[in-house]
Write a structure and sequence with these properties.
By secondary structure, this protein is mainly alpha-helical. 74% of the residues lie in helices and 5% in strands. Among the domains are: 111 residues, Rossmann fold; 201 residues, Rossmann fold, CATH 3.40.50.300; 146 residues, no CATH class; 109 residues, no CATH class; 114 residues; 90 residues. The chain contains 32 helices and ten strands. A five-stranded antiparallel sheet has the order 2-1-3-4-5, covered by helices on one side.
Length: 1134
């Protein structure tokens, strides 16, 4: 599988950013915070899904996060898909339709991110941790290979963790481990259960006493409850008697009031409001009658009627009065200004022409209409004059530059054609840095040859040279592995047999020792012995029966059975012996059982030892045959083999030597081809240099000096030709420019002649007989314009003075006419005084009018108010009548007394209700009738004495007896708990069950840990057996390249415990343990192991992308370059 495209559509800092990843190595680099880590997280999210919580949503919300891309399988099939941050249906095709996980699994078989990162990912932290693990493992081959192959770091820590946790659970001789502690606690519970016992008779006596005490206590408590109930009843009546008396008195008062009509609660307030409103209404009616009398007195005719009729005319004159006064003041000033303006206009005219007067100046007004034309002509004259001057200057400068260029062209040498030399240099450059390449290749070839010879020397089993070694027909690696497996199987069987034999001998010695110990206590009876003796007893009884009952002659049989004793006595002896053996078997059952068990165990152990000896013989015969086949396998290559494990390593080194030899031949062939190619290029360059240069070519075998010499000559010739071309082009441009400038000069001369004629025609009226220069034309036009402006200002002032005179006369005529109508007595005054006095009269008339209009308005308002007051009085009288009706149709003066009777009745009813409520609350649920009945039967004077008697009986008789019985019951219960072992036994049993469950759970965990450690160790060893030789050969090559030849490679050695470990080999053959390597070198060793494992995996698995993150951050430039070269070669195959 290969990633061809990664689309960061909405992720982290990226929006619609796409990375196209073609075949080969890709390096994604940039400054800090450029998004490299975000890109890596996006790739993981695309392949395996977004995490539940992400920090890459600072620009795009969670629901907008989207990463896409394209995967390409090994057969060329492609899958383009995108992934969103969703819990379900997060994989989408190009059209946005959901894809199943199975579709992706066809291209990406690894669905777990952690497994993918372990196998096909490597970060800087992983690299550092891998180097540290190699140091912690002391170079142990199996763990190093397994860690690199699986990507799992800290294998030693994992194994140590498993062992540590197992030891924390159980140790054979431990005490503080969890299983050990649980077993000890379980034994304690068993002891507790055995010790928990109880006396039946004592228990029954105590139990009966407890029952009797409980019955007595219940009787006392019942008496106590009854007396307490009666006492509470009397106390309740004692407390409620005052309330009962109060209730009777309230009921008597209500009866005395008789029938009362209840008035509404708000009736008193409503009555007071109505009375207050009537009082206020009467006062307002009196005030209104006084105001109406005053309004009638103001109904007379106004004395200002004529003034009000002329109001508009008076107001108009008054507004014009200010303008009239100002115009009379301004008239003399305006006349002076008119005279001054006319004098200034004459002065401006003299500046233009002195031969005409102001009356003739209108003849010059058309000249002002041509002011724009005159300005344009003046500006054009200046430009034409400047253009003519600049043209003459440019022509002189162009001629000077042409003279200089002609001199430079005459001094330049003749050029030569450098096309052949240029072609030769280009072909030489196309060959690349061939000199450096040859030097490096020669050094690498020599180093490779020396490495091959060194590696051949290390193969001690092989004699002869490199060619003879390459012709050897070595066994196949798979066959050697089969023999290694067979040899190891034999070793394991032999080791297992020895271990089993030692175990059996140890158990046999222990059983014999225990048997001897039993025998020290005397002969141990057995079931067989008892059967034998009982048989003899039965035989004696049979003889007695035959002799006594049948009368048979049994002398010989009796002699054989009884020897010298009489038959009955002998029979009795046999019966006694049989009974004794039977009793011993019963009484010494444990000893007998141990004896039988030990004897059976000895027989079984001897049988197992015999079987084990036979198996050992068979194994030895099979191993002899296996060794013969092993030596036969190596006879074609005349090598006496060592063990298969050693020969696997030997074959790995031999295979590495074969590859190195193949690489050596390829390097030598490529070196020869490069030397020939350089010689051909050098001859071509020398020939071209000799043809173009007077200097002889550089005498050297290297190509670079000739290339530099040729390129320098090409540069020189090219620069000379470029300079000549630039000079010729510049001269042509100058000649062309000279012709253009000459044409412009002629145009300027013609334009100046035409301008002069037009200038004279336009200014003929302004200058008269004299010629006007363009520089003074502007001043003359400005003076002429000022002259006409002053004349216009003079005319405007004259018109304004005439208007003032006309307006003043009209104002005076209007004022006199109005005064004659309104007040003829003022006719002799001035117009201004008349208007001011008329304005005063108008103000007085307006004030009088306002007052009269206000009185009329008030009169209407007061009439309306009188009508409203009458209506309000009717409403209040109706409200008062309604209140009297609610109080029982009483008169208004009787209303207050009715209210007081209603209030008193309501108060009595409320007090009675509260009293009855208090009685019900204190009666504890009794009805009032029953409470009154109880109170009627009780003499209040006797209540305190009865209550005291009941309290005394409860406190001094019943309570002490109840306390005594309770203490007795508690004492008996305590004694029963102390005697009763059932509870303790049950608790112990329950605790034992819990401990058994805990022991079972801990034991399962202990077994899991031990099995996991065993499986992991076995898998590490299996992985080492299957992959050690090929992977270490590849690792050795990578390690040499990564360390720039500081190490020639890697080998396996054995430590003090006989375990295989990795060692580095210096070019001089010195061996370096991993503990003596620098941390950087150990990191490179781990990188070499990871790369070798990946290359070995590619032989049997589909290629996958290998993703690295900051692994070269601590490497120098040279080693980084070597690492990138290796990664580039590896990337061509992934």
């Amino acid at each position: 599988m290969r990633i061809t495209r990664l689309a960061l559509k909405a992720f982290g800092p990226f929006t619609e950013r796409t990375l196209h990843l073609g075949p080969g190595l890709h390096i994604i680099h940039g400054p800090n915070e450029a998004g490299k880590s975000s890109t890596l997280r996006a790739l993981k999210a695309w392949l395996f899904g977004f995490p539940e919580r992400t920090h890459d949503n600072f620009l795009h919300a969670n629901e907008q996060l989207l990463v896409g891309g394209c995967l390409q399988a090994e057969d060329g099939r492609e899958l383009a898909f995108s992934r969103r941050k969703k819990r379900k249906a997060d994989i989408l095709d190009q059209d946005g339709n959901p894809l199943t996980a199975e579709t992706l699994a066809a291209f990406l078989p690894i669905s777990e991110q952690t497994i993918f990162e372990s196998l096909y990912g490597l970060s800087h932290e992983d690299l550092i941790r891998g180097g540290e693990d190699i140091l912690a493992q002391k170079g142990e081959v199996g763990q190093a290979l397994f860690s690199a192959g699986s990507g799992v770091s800290s294998l030693r820590g994992v194994l140590a963790g498993l062992e540590s946790e197992a030891e924390s659970l159980f140790k054979a001789r431990g005490a503080k481990q969890e299983i050990n502690e649980a077993l000890a606690a379980y034994k304690e519970t068993q002891i507790t259960m055995r010790e928990a016992s109880l006396s039946s008779r004592d228990w029954h006596e105590l139990n009966n006493g407890l029952t009797e005490a409980q019955e007595a206590l219940r009787s006392i408590e019942e008496q106590q409850r009854e007396k307490d109930r009666h006492r509470r009843q009397l106390e309740r009546l004692q407390q409620l008697l005052p309330q009962i008396a109060l209730r009777n008195a309230l009921r008597q008062q209500l009866a005395e009031l008789g029938k009362i009509i209840e008035v509404p609660d708000d009736l008193p307030a409503r009555r007071l409001n109505v009375e207050r409103a009537l009082h206020t209404l009467t006062r307002r009616e009196n005030d209104l009658a006084g105001k109406l009398t005053q309004r009638e007195k103001m109904a007379t005719v106004s004395p200002y009627q004529a003034v009000l009729e002329a109001e508009a005319a008076i107001e108009d004159l008054h507004q014009r009065l200010g303008g009239y006064n100002k115009a009379r003041d301004d008239q003399p000033n305006l006349e002076g200004m008119r005279i001054s303006c006319k004098r200034e206009a004459a002065d401006f005219l003299k500046m233009v022409r002195q031969d005409i007067s102001l009356e003739q100046v209108e003849a010059l007004r058309p000249v002002l209409g041509r002011k724009k034309i005159i300005g344009e002509l003046a500006t054009r004259h200046k430009g034409l004059q400047q253009g003519l001057t600049q043209s003459e200057k440019d022509l002189r400068e162009i001629q000077r530059e042409i003279t200089i260029i002609d001199g430079e062209l005459a001094r330049l040498p003749q050029t030569k054609d450098a096309a052949g030399l240029n072609q030769a240099c280009r072909l030489a450059r196309k060959a690349g840095a061939i000199d450096d390449d040859l030097t490096v290749r020669a050094r690498l070839t020599e180093n490779k040859k020396r490495d091959c010879l060194t590696a051949l020397d290390r193969l001690t089993l092989c004699s002869g040279g490199l060619e003879q070694f390459l012709s050897l027909r070595l066994p196949l690696l798979e066959m050697v592995r089969e023999y290694e497996t067979a040899f190891k199987s034999h070793d394991e069987r032999h080791r297992d047999t020895n271990n089993e034999k030692a175990r059996l001998h140890k158990e046999l010695n222990e059983a014999q020792s225990r048997l001897r110990q039993l025998e020290t206590y005397g002969n141990t009876p057995t079931e067989e012995e008892l059967v034998l003796i009982r048989g003899q007893r039965d035989l004696g009884w049979e003889l007695i029966r035959r002799q006594w009952l049948k009368g048979e002659d049994l002398v010989e049989e009796t002699a054989t059975f009884a020897h010298d004793l009489p038959l009955p006595e002998a029979y009795e002896n046999k019966v006694a012996i049989a009974d004794t053996v039977a009793d011993r078997l019963r009484h010494e059952a444990d000893r007998v059982q141990a004896f039988v068990t030990l004897r059976t165990e000895l027989q079984s152990l001897n049988a197992e030892l015999a079987e084990l000896a036979k198996k050992e013989t068979d194994n030895d015969l099979a191993f002899t045959s296996l060794q013969a086949k092993w030596h036969t396998l190596w006879e074609p290559c005349t090598i006496i083999p060592l063990s298969p494990t050693v020969m696997l390593t030997w074959l790995g080194e031999a295979a590495a030597l074969r590859r190195s030899a193949d690489e050596l031949q390829a390097n030598e062939h490529e070196l020869s081809r490069k030397i020939t190619e350089r010689q051909e290029l050098r001859i071509a360059l020398s020939r071209e240099l000799a043809a173009l240069s007077a200097e002889s070519p550089t005498k050297t075998d290297e190509l670079e000096p000739l290339i530099l010499q040729g390129e320098a000559l090409i540069t020189q010739l090219t620069a000379l030709e470029d300079k000549r071309s630039r000079l010729v082009e510049k001269k042509a441009a100058l000649l062309k420019n000279s012709a253009m400038v000459e044409g412009r000069k002629t145009d300027f001369i013609h334009d100046l002649l035409a301008w002069r004629q037009e200038w004279q025609e336009v200014l003929a009226d302004l200058g008269g007989d004299r010629e006007i220069h363009p520089a003074e034309a502007g001043d003359l036009l400005d003076n002429l314009h000022s002259c006409f402006a002053k004349l216009k200002e003079t005319d405007d002032l004259r018109k304004r003075i005439d208007g003032i005179i006309r307006d003043t006369q009209r104002f005076e005529e209007n004022a006199l006419a109005l005064a004659e109508i309104i007040s003829p007595a003022r006719m002799g005054q001035s117009a201004g005084e008349i208007v001011a006095q008329l304005k005063t009269l108008l103000n007085l008339a307006r004030t009088d009018k306002t007052l009269r209009e206000g009185c009329l308005k008030k009169e209407k308002e007061e009439a309306n108010e009188a009508l409203l007051l009458s209506t309000e009085r009717k409403d209040l009288e109706y409200e008062l009548a309604e209140l009297c009706r609610l109080a029982g149709n009483v008169l208004p003066e009787e209303l207050e007394a009715a209210e007081k009777r209603s209030t008193q009745s309501i108060s009595l009813v409320m007090s009675l209700a509260q009293t009855e409520k208090n009685l019900l609350e204190g009666a504890d649920g009794l009805p009032l009738a029953e409470l009154e009945s109880q109170a009627a039967k009780i003499n209040p004077d006797e209540l305190p004495g009865e209550i005291a008697r009941l309290s005394k009986g409860i406190e001094q008789e019943l309570t002490p007896e109840s306390k005594r019985l309770s203490e007795l019951i508690g004492e008996k219960r305590t004694r029963l708990r102390q005697m009763d072992g059932n509870a303790r036994a049950a608790e112990a049993a329950e605790q034992g069950a819990q401990l058994i469950a805990r022991i079972r759970r801990l034991a399962e965990r202990y077994i899991q840990l031990k099995v996991a450690g065993y499986i992991l160790t076995s898998e590490i060893e299996r992985f080492r057996r299957e992959n050690q030789t090929p992977v270490l050969a590849i690792t050795s090559r990578y390690f040499s390249e990564l360390t720039l030849g500081s190490f020639a490679g890697l080998l396996t050695d054995e430590n003090e415990q006989g375990e295989p470990v990795l060692v580095g080999i210096r070019p001089n053959g010195a061996r370096v343990l991993v503990a003596r390597m620098s941390s950087g070198t150990r990191d490179q060793l781990y990188l070499a192991l990871r790369l070798a494992s990946l290359e070995w995996r590619l032989a049997s698995h589909e290629p996958m992308p290998f993703i690295l993150d900051d692994i070269l951050v601590n490497a120098d430039d040279a080693r980084s370059k070597a690492a990138l070269k290796i990664l580039g070669e590896l990337a061509a195959r992934t």
